[in-house]
């Protein structure tokens, strides 16, 4: 077939051109056949592989976007879950702290009351001891005053 096309082209070139630019002779069907053959070759060799590659790339991008969106949804769910757990942990920590503060306040107030009772008892004991010492001192002073007054009286009477 190739030889036939070459011989046809050679015969067509031997015929002189009569019309000029729009001459409808044997070259027009040859050009149409050449265009169709080139289109077929390009379609087989270039357009189909390129379109396959583009289709594969589009599928890859679509799959990547799908997995990325599912990963994003999972990440959002995990974020909400962890934020909720964090809020619950903060609430429980605040209640634990509040309970510990109340317990420590109760313990401190008990210790303060015990310390006040101890100081009151110590003050009362010290007051009682001072009163007994005062009474003893007064008694000893009375006896000494009596002794001294008797001595003075005896001296006055002797003289």
TrEMBL record:
Its main location: membrane. F-type ATPases have 2 components, F(1) - the catalytic core - and F(0) - the membrane proton channel. F(1) has five subunits: alpha(3), beta(3), gamma(1), delta(1), epsilon(1). F(0) has four main subunits: a(1), b(1), b'(1) and c(10-14). The alpha and beta chains form an alternating ring which encloses part of the gamma chain. F(1) is attached to F(0) by a central stalk formed by the gamma and epsilon chains, while a peripheral stalk is formed by the delta, b and b' chains. Belongs to the ATPase B chain family. The gene is atpg. One of its GO terms (molecular function) is proton-transporting ATP synthase activity, rotational mechanism. The chain crosses the membrane at residues 27-47. Gene3D superfamilies: 6.10.250.1580. InterPro entries: ATP_synth_b, ATP_synth_B-like_membr_sf, ATP_synth_b/b'su_bac/chlpt, ATP_synthase_B_chain. Residues 116-158 form a coiled coil. It comes from the Eukaryota. PANTHER family: ATP SYNTHASE SUBUNIT B', CHLOROPLASTIC. This is ATP synthase CF0 subunit II. Keywords: ATP synthesis, Cell membrane, CF(0), Coiled coil, Hydrogen ion transport, Ion transport, Membrane, Plastid, Transmembrane, Transmembrane helix, Transport. It is found in: Cell membrane; Membrane. One of its GO terms (cellular component) is plasma membrane. F(1)F(0) ATP synthase produces ATP from ADP in the presence of a proton or sodium gradient. F-type ATPases consist of two structural domains, F(1) containing the extramembraneous catalytic core and F(0) containing the membrane proton channel, linked together by a central stalk and a peripheral stalk. During catalysis, ATP synthesis in the catalytic domain of F(1) is coupled via a rotary mechanism of the central stalk subunits to proton translocation. It is a single-pass membrane protein. It holds the Pfam family ATP-synt_B.
């Amino acid at each position: 077939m190739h030889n036939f096309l070459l011989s046809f082209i050679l015969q067509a070139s031997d015929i002189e051109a009569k019309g000029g630019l729009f001459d409808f002779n044997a070259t027009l069907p040859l050009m149409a056949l050449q265009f169709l053959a080139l289109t077929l070759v390009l379609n087989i060799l270039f357009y189909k592989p390129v379109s396959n590659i583009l289709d594969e790339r589009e599928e890859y991008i679509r799959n990547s976007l799908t997995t990325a969106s599912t990963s994003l949804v999972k990440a959002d769910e995990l974020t909400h879950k962890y934020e909720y757990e964090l809020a619950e942990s903060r609430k429980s920590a605040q209640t634990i702290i509040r309970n510990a503060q109340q317990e420590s306040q109760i313990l401190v107030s008990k210790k303060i009351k015990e310390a006040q009772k101890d100081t009151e008892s110590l003050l009362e004991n010290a007051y009682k001891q001072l009163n007994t010492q005062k009474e003893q001192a007064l008694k000893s002073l009375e006896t000494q005053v009596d002794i001294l007054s008797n001595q003075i009286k005896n001296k006055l009477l002797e003289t």
